[in-house]
Amino acid sequence: MEKEIQFKMLPEQAKNEGFIKNKLAELSGFDSAKLNFHWKKRSLDARKKEILVLGTFIVSDEVIVSQDSVNFTKSNVASKKQLAIIGAGPAGLFAALRAIELGLKPIVFERGKDVRSRRRDLAKLNKEMIVNPESNYCFGEGGAGTYSDGKLYTRSKKRGDVKKVLDWFVHFGASSDISIDAHPHIGTNKLPAIITAMREAIIEAGGEVHFNSKLTDIFIENGTISGIEINESTKFDFTQLILATGHSARDIFYLLDKRGIEIHAKPFAIGVRIEHEQSLIDSIQYHGRLNDDYLPPASYSLVEQVDSKGVFSFCMCPGGIVAPCATEQEEVVTNGWSPSKRNNPYANSGIVVSIDPDDISINSEDPFVCLNFQKQIEKKAWELAGKTQRVPAQRLTDFMQGKKSVDLPKTSYQPGTVSVDLTELFPDFITVRLQKAFKEFGKKMNGFLTSEAVLMAPESRTSSPVSIPRDRESFQHVQIAGLYPCGEGAGYAGGIVSAAIDGMKCVEKIAEILLIEV
Ligand SMILES: Cc1cc2nc3c(=O)[nH]c(=O)nc-3n(C[C@H](O)[C@H](O)[C@H](O)COP(=O)(O)OP(=O)(O)OC[C@H]3O[C@@H](n4cnc5c(N)ncnc54)[C@H](O)[C@@H]3O)c2cc1C
Questions:
Q1: Nearest-5° angle of CA 274, CA 280, CA 283?
Q2: Nearest Cα residue to 218 out of 242, 185, 191
Q3: Nearest Cα residue to 74 out of 201, 207, 164, 173
Q4: CA distances from 407 to 401, 421, 451 (A)
Q5: What is d(CA 21, CA 476) in angstroms, rounded to the nearest whole number?
Q6: Could you write out the DSSP letters of every residue in 188-240?
Q7: What is the distance between the alpha carbons of residues 515 and 194, in angstroms, rounded to a whole number?
Q8: Backbone angles phi, psi at 278, to 5 degrees
Q9: DSSP of 241-286, one letter per residue?
Q10: Mutation test of ligand 1: which of 147, 154, 162, 245 has the most ligand atoms closer than 8 Å to its C-beta?
Q11: Which atom of ligand 1 is nearest to the CA of 503?
Q12: What is the DSSP letter of 157?
């Protein structure tokens, strides 16, 4: 017989299998000699001084069979109906895998390089400050999710879909801990192997993955997609096309506009990336408890309404690195990542202000109003950084007072920092909200407001500044038959998990249509 049992324990007890087994025997009434168990969920509650782990377990006095994981099921699709997928980010890769499951042949075109070759371009960017516009932190196999913290949290309410994404990550090599932890993450060092395994599975099943293959045009006949052009030279016929090109593929937004496809300016967020010493964040979040082997590097999540706009922490990376995420040479963009152990000495997070199209321009009907604003700030940052990939930076307390920092502490941002008064980078409606929000964050986290914290800017690729209208769930409204705008770039996802879910959803719709055609 199986039972589900939940109890709270100290972090050191959560690492002690003998303790857990005895406690489960006591609570279940099963004989501890015969008892089998596995974790179902694990979360850390550090709100009070006594930090506790809340564990949910499946317990049995027999062998436990009900692991209920959703496996990826392979089939041979080499001679099956084809669909084109543009972009090998989480949306594109999960679309390809789901296509195989449903008996369709995915042909993936990715503008960047495979995950291994991509690493060399990132080294060039970090060391020589050279941005390869086709291979960088946003473009290349695995998409923007590859060199990330690999946080797998989502606001998606569809537990079944989320579980499938997590289970597939485990199937392709992620630790099974991600299915248990309340705040799962994979880590930059582990993601490339997982993504490689996904690509190998696609090819093994008879699908195709093409690198250095940029979509440069689409062909439409009688309101239906009829083909694509790759690298301005080769044309392919396709009647089903998933466009999963992410939030940084500006050329795709321009292309769609040129081809008469409706796109809209979309609310997004812009701000700074803040970096503290990880030990300070641990000390704040764990009530002074430091260097504790039983506690993970601490994270935080902050949100404040300031003058009717949300200001919030975004993509917080404990034990992380601030990364140069530009996709063109003449712009500076920040974001953050962490390795699986989150063992770097710094904690970083985006702190961003929500922006609506009409905050920027009275011409808020212009589909490019937010994109142009984003571009303008990124370009200005590049100019302020002496036309390099160094990052404009300022001590937090100096930013609060609107004065340039005399010197800057060491940071994790490899290309280096340039002291700039960031109030020069942003319009007042962003600066003032950030300043007010930091004041409030300092009240919530005692010690957060310190001169040792550094702001680097801009954090500007939080989400897509453009959306491509599509009926999100039912697909009743598809502008061009056979064209499926998908994932973060189209405005239907805000992270790895939701992008993956959207990729699968688009393929399911295509399968439904192709089946009807049979
Ligand atoms: C440094 C960093 C850290 C992040 N950390 C996290 C995190 O911890 N957790 C989280 O949930 N999210 C994180 N994100 C965000 C996350 O990566 C994205 O939300 C997610 O990758 C979006 O998936 P997508 O497939 O829609 O698009 P993308 O991942 O952006 O993939 C789009 C792909 O399309 C390709 N492409 C673009 N244009 C073309 C074209 N014309 N032809 C062919 N291919 C094209 C690109 O090269 C890219 O590979 C992070 C992002 C960055 C940059």
A1: 135
A2: 242
A3: 201
A4: 15, 12, 11
A5: 52
A6: TTTHHHHHHHHHHHHHHTT-EEESS--EEEEEEETTEEEEEEETTTEEEE-S-
A7: 31
A8: -60, -35
A9: EEE---TT-HHHHHHHHHTT---EE--EEEEEEEEEEHHHHHHHHT
A10: 245
A11: 25
A12: -
**Residue 499 in contact with ligand 1 by CB distance below 6 A:** yes
Q: What is the mean pLDDT of each successive set of 10 residues along the chain, which is 518 residues long? A: 95 96 95 92 95 96 72 90 98 97 97 96 97 98 89 76 93 94 92 97 98 98 96 96 98 97 95 98 94 93 96 96 98 96 96 94 86 97 98 98 96 98 96 98 97 98 93 74 95 94 95 74
Q: What are phi and psi of 141, to 5 degrees?
A: -55, 130
Domains of the chain listed by start with CATH number: 2-60 (3.30.70.2700), 82-263+468-517 (3.50.50.60), 266-459 (no CATH)
Residues 6+ apart with CB under 8 A from 59: 2, 3, 4, 5, 24, 28, 30, 35, 36, 37
Q: How many CB atoms lie within 10 A of CB 129?
A: 18
Is cis: bond before 458, omega within 30 of 0?
Answer: yes
Q: Which two tokens stand for residue 161?
A: 């879909």
Q: Could you report how far apart the first and last alpha carbons of the chain are, in Å?
A: 46
* Ligand 1: centre distance to CA 379 (Å): 21
Q: CA-to-CA distance for 365 and 375, rounded, in angstroms?
A: 18
Nearest to 88 by CA among 219, 244, 292: 244
Strand order in the sheet with 241-243: 208-210, 105-109, 82-86, 241-243, 483-485
| Whole-number Å distance between alpha carbons of 34 and 60 | 8
Give the distance (Å) from ligand 1 centre to CA of residue 315: 13
User: How big is the chain, counted in residues?
Assistant: 518
How many CB atoms neighbour CB 64 within 10 A?
A: 13
Residue 217 and residue 357: Cα distance in Å, rounded? 28
Candidates 93, 94, 111, 132: which one to mutate for ligand 1, based on the most atoms within 8 Å of Cβ?
A: 111
Pocket test for ligand 1, best of 190, 194, 496, 501 (most atoms within 8 A of CB): 496
In 3D space, the residue among 420, 455, 426, 418 whose CA is nearest the CA of residue 355 turns out to be 426
Kindly give the distance from the C-alpha atom of residue 309 to the centroid of ligand 1, in angstroms, as a whole number.
26
Q: Which atom of ligand 1 is nearest to the CA of 93?
A: 25
Tokens for 156, please give them: 């998606």
290 and 447 in contact (C-beta within 8 Å)? no
Rounded to the nearest angstrom, the distance between the alpha carbon of 144 and the centre of ligand 1 is: 3
d(CA 348, CA 371) in angstroms, rounded, equals 25
Q: Give Cβ neighbours of residue 93 (< 8 Å, ≥ 6 apart).
A: 108, 142, 143, 195, 198, 199, 202, 500, 503
| Residue type, position 147, single letter | Y
Q: Which of 5, 10, 82 is nearest to 44 (CA)?
A: 10
**Rounded Cα distance, 115 and 119, in Å:** 7
Which candidate, 229, 249, 234, places its Cα nearest to that of 91?
A: 249
Query: Is the CB–ligand 1 distance for residue 11 below 6 Å?
Result: no
